[in-house]
Amino acid sequence: MGKATIRDVSRVTGLSTYTVSRALSGAPGVSADSREQVLAAARQIGYIPNRAAQGLRRGSRDSIAVIVASTANSYYLDLMAGIQQALRHFDWTVIIADVAVDGVYNPRLEDRIVQRLIESRTAGVITTLTLSSENTALLSQWDVPIVFVDSAPPESANFPSVTTDNYNASLMVGDHLAEHGYRDWLFLVYPKRWSTRVDRERGIRDSAATHGAHVEVLESENDEDSAFRTLETYLAQAERIPRVLIAGNNPLLLGALRLLRDRGIRIPADMAVVGYDEFAWASLLDPPLTVLDEDSEAIGRLAGQTLARIINEQAEAAKDGGSQSPVYRVEDRQQVAGRLIVRRSCGCYVDNERPR
Amino acid sequence: MGKATIRDVSRVTGLSTYTVSRALSGAPGVSADSREQVLAAARQIGYIPNRAAQGLRRGSRDSIAVIVASTANSYYLDLMAGIQQALRHFDWTVIIADVAVDGVYNPRLEDRIVQRLIESRTAGVITTLTLSSENTALLSQWDVPIVFVDSAPPESANFPSVTTDNYNASLMVGDHLAEHGYRDWLFLVYPKRWSTRVDRERGIRDSAATHGAHVEVLESENDEDSAFRTLETYLAQAERIPRVLIAGNNPLLLGALRLLRDRGIRIPADMAVVGYDEFAWASLLDPPLTVLDEDSEAIGRLAGQTLARIINEQAEAAKDGGSQSPVYRVEDRQQVAGRLIVRRSCGCYVDNERPR
DNA sequence: ATCAACTACCTAAACGTTTATCATCACATC
DNA sequence: GATGTGATGATAAACGTTTAGGTAGTTGAT
Hints:
Two copies of one chain form a homodimer.
Chain A: H1 6-13, H2 17-25, H3 32-45, H4 51-58, E1 63-68, H5 75-87, E2 93-98, E3 100-101, E4 104-105, H6 107-119, E5 124-127, H7 133-141, E6 146-149, E7 161-164, H8 166-179, E8 184-189, H9 196-211, E9 214-219, H10 224-237, E10 244-247, H11 250-263, E11 272-276, E12 290-293, H12 296-319, E13 333-336, E14 339-341
Parallel strand pairs in A: 1-2, 1-5, 5-6, 6-7, 7-13, 8-9, 8-10, 10-11, 11-12
Antiparallel strand pairs in A: 3-4, 12-14
Helix pairs in contact in A: 1-2, 1-3, 2-3, 5-12, 8-9, 10-11
The structure holds a DNA duplex.
């Protein structure tokens, strides 16, 4: 049949819906006998509870949303894995909300999605980008906790955040390049909407300053094709090619590598290359790539744990008749250290990746 | 406040909840004046409808689930992009349900997730793996349409499916290898649970038979590490290394390439390599990889379109008092042609990837 | 025998919507 | 003046759960 309700179970067993409900949820106040009966009957008629009704009645919120802009970056896969890991033992459904259409960020879609999340009374949000202030406010108004990952939260409400320590990461990159003696760097980077940009750029600039290197910052849209074209245009008008290319993230790296290959620019002989974000194929490229590894799985795990804790505390407080709004702690602004994986594209001849 | 209900809007405007409801949904039977008032009031007090209540009352189902096993394969990204594209203009929420824990498929999790999908009265399911027959039956019982992508549906109910034409794809691979004169192939492949395995293997075997080549089929679990170890064990006991390695999918390819690099086996001089599934870095590897491209975005698009049509037809039929169960058509078993992208790992010296 | 304290269960009212049914009013028609 | 006809809106009953408040029945102490 396919649509048995709790009342059907009640009818079949001759017990009230109250008893059935308690029996099914494992709550006390039901004899072992009755419980047995209920479970048997439920199985027999194929009863499966209706989540919408449950949610409505208990005012429960049962899903968690991860907001991303264009999942095309494989970095999200690791992030998601971490999040799933942290939330595995809770009973939330994790949903991915992509605010990009055909790979490019779309503010109207962001609005629509946030609206939608509130409509379905989402329990919490993990966002990989700085949401519009309207949307942040809206979510807060509806008491939906937000955790920012690899993106800057608005200063206002000390929102929790988990971020790579991008500034120090950039210093590591810069210092390593300086050790090679390179003094002429090109930093190809995505727009400031992805706020990690700020710290990454600051680190690179500071490091350059320290070592007396010159750094050019070249902004591209956050996708492979834009990176290709931006770099193409830049090289066309540059007097000489920079000694080093630093790619702000994976898609940009990909676009850049394509261009360099087409141009026949040799790595690292003509131009050394360093990327942000480790990825599966990095060690198999020609040459193997030196990258700054973000450990996005750890970031995801941390974000998931933090969000879970906040939601649970919030539920606790609400049960005791306290405030509905989530409580954020100062120590929930967390940074995860990155690490530099040195391979050959920077000019080193070592390959420190161990086989597994 | 953050929890205005339709009754609050009703109170503020002095109109009944009936009128408010109709006004908000844009249904007829409300004067322009009242509608105006309602909208203004709703905005003013920050009313946002409660999806659970709506769903409960109208019995509507508003999300679509994509079931995958371990998203770690980047092929899913393209697939998802295609699905999202097809469903963009409908009002469903697309959720990803991963039935793998830490990257390995978990049958208990599959059960739990299907249960969950029914609890939340999911509108439809796209699955990338052949679900257990219990779960397929369960979903059918609850009238949830299922579309299988790159996986074999059970023969029973002529479920719709969208698949690469794996048999012909494998013939293409085999034929190309034969042209090179290779006669000793190793096919490294994932378990039969991912049912594309069957056609892929059949194609390879048939092609080998046609060309008088010998093919060894080596089964590994569906992840990088297993592939590495399986191949390692195989090579340890093999008399000589095969002339060709065909990797059944991306994670296996990755594991295999790692091993070959560690062993110092040169590609294609010692061993030619061909993979299934195109991916962004394929052309940048050393050597650039010859792969069979699946066009998973097209597959996703097709699957999304098909599912949308079926759900809508189902809703239509239900409205006219007809049957609730989805109607599947024979022509919804669709195949998408693959194409061989020839680069260098197979032994060819051309690189036919055009720069963009 | 009375009362208290359980246990096991029931009845009925919620939760926030949509909608079937009914009511009212204005106007036109005869 | 009686009647019909649309338009607009109100009332109340659903949808499938959970749960507050209550009622029996049993047991044990007094």
